[in-house]
Amino acid sequence: MRSNNDKKKTRLRQRILAAFSSVLFFSFLLTGIIFNIIIRLFTSGDYDYHVAEEAVTGRAGATLIALVAIMFVVSVVVTYFLSNSITRPIEKLSKFALGIGKGNFETNDFEFQDMEIESLNAAFNKSVRQLGAHDKMQKDFFQNASHELRTPLMSIKVYAEGIVYGLMEPKKAGETILKETDRLSDLVTDLLYIAKIDNITTAYNTEKSDLIKIIKECAARQQVIADKKQVKFIFDLDKGEISYECVTELISRAVDNLISNAIRYAISEIVISCRKKDKQIQISVTDDGNGIESETLPHVFERFYKGKGGNTGIGLAIVKSIADQHEGHVAAENCSGTGAVFTLTLPLK
Questions:
Q1: Distances (CA, A) of 216 to 21, 70, 245
Q2: Do 343 and 213 sit in the same domain of this protein?
Q3: pLDDT per residue over 68-112, tens digit each?
Q4: Is 183 in the same domain as 98?
Q5: What are residue 18's DSSP bridge partners?
Q6: In what order do the strands lie in the sheet with 329-334?
Q7: Which domain holds residue 155?
């Protein structure tokens, strides 16, 4: 018994055969009859209804019908092979699509004569590459996430056992547990956030936002932390507002992370700038710390990579993902004097 898919494929062939054969048959029949009538009329000299009737029903008409029947059979055979040439590529691509659904993200090397089918195949291969990259990224993400989550959990367990068995001073152990709990909470929050950004089915609504306002709000939220470290903010912003079509929540999070990162390494001040330049908007956060080590600089935006003094290794990776979402990019470099500067560049659309 044929499956439903096989039946659908057979019906497609049948529709092609029926359509092509019917058109060819009636075309041959009508053309032949008209041609035969014209020949008879020209040979008889004058138009006569009986002559026309004989042309259709007489011996000449029978011969014509026989020829049309032969042509019909030929057309059916030709149409059959034509229908196969149309349906075979579709069958190959259908099997390829089923493989994608089962997690096979390897591209195919099919070659098709028809440009439309070849274009469809190219679209399939592009989707496979994107899905494969996303699948690998997700696997690496969960592998690294499980490792990062295990570290604070083990610390909490060790210090909790120390309290239970009387091996550690409760207050000191409790402080460590609270510290690791806060770290674990921050890590989980970051993991959930970056997973949300990476979700290929997540749809974000963009809106016109004032980037100057966003920057000032982000700095205000972290003012207490900056004051605690005796670090002051210096603003170098375009006058007025800078309106930009974006996902406000994501841009705000990116700026928050850049400022938070700068506070961690700054000694006394952080310069925050935002300017329009060459059909782009550049948001820069510069600290006056010791800069980024040369071996760390190429990896600062990699997930779970923690340089000296790093926290979870996710904050700057979130910034990169947000930049990618907005078709922009983020870069880091050391200043000519001291400190480092992180620049988020967004294209004006």
A1: 73, 84, 18
A2: yes
A3: 677 667 766 766 776 677 778 888 888 888 888 888 888 898 888
A4: no
A5: none
A6: 232-237, 269-277, 280-287, 340-347, 329-334
A7: 140-198
Contact between residue 238 and residue 276 where contact means Cβ atoms under 8 Å apart:
yes
The whole model's pTM is what?
A: 0.58
Which has the closest alpha carbon to 321: 190, 169, 131? 190
Residues shown for the chain? 349
Q: Are residues 343 and 211 in the same domain?
A: yes
Do 341 and 300 touch, CB atoms closer than 8 A? Answer: no
Q: Are residues 243 and 267 in the same domain?
A: yes
What is the distance between the alpha carbons of residues 94 and 117, in angstroms, rounded to a whole number?
A: 12
Is the same domain home to 90 and 221?
no
What number of CA atoms fall less than 13 Å from residue 210's CA on the CB side?
9
Letter string b/e over residues 239-271, b meaning 16 or more CB atoms within 10 A of that residue's CB: eeebebebbbebbbbbbbbbbbbbbbbbeebbb
Report the distance separating Cα 339 and Cα 333, nearest Å. 9
**Dist. CA 317–CA 328, nearest whole Å:** 14
Residue type at position 309: G
Gap between the Cα atoms of 346 and 349, Å rounded: 9
Look at residue 46 and tell me if it is in a domain.
Answer: yes
- Phi and psi of 289, rounded to 5°? -80, -155
Per-residue confidence (pLDDT) for residue 172, from 0 to 100? 85
Residue 78: helix, strand or coil by DSSP?
A: helix
Return d(Cα 12, Cα 180) in angstroms, integer: 63
The answer to whether residue 134 sits within a structural domain is: no
Residues 217 and 319 placed together within one structural domain of the fold: yes
257 and 328 in a single domain? The answer is yes
Residue 255 lies in a domain: yes
- Do residues 273 and 235 both lie within one domain? yes
Sheet strands (E) in the chain: 207-210, 232-237, 243-246, 269-277, 280-287, 329-334, 340-347
User: Regarding beta strands 269-277 and 232-237, do their DSSP bridges make them parallel or antiparallel, or are they unpaired?
Assistant: parallel
- For 9-22, how does the pLDDT look when each residue is reduced to its tens digit (9 = 90+)? 445 556 566 666 66
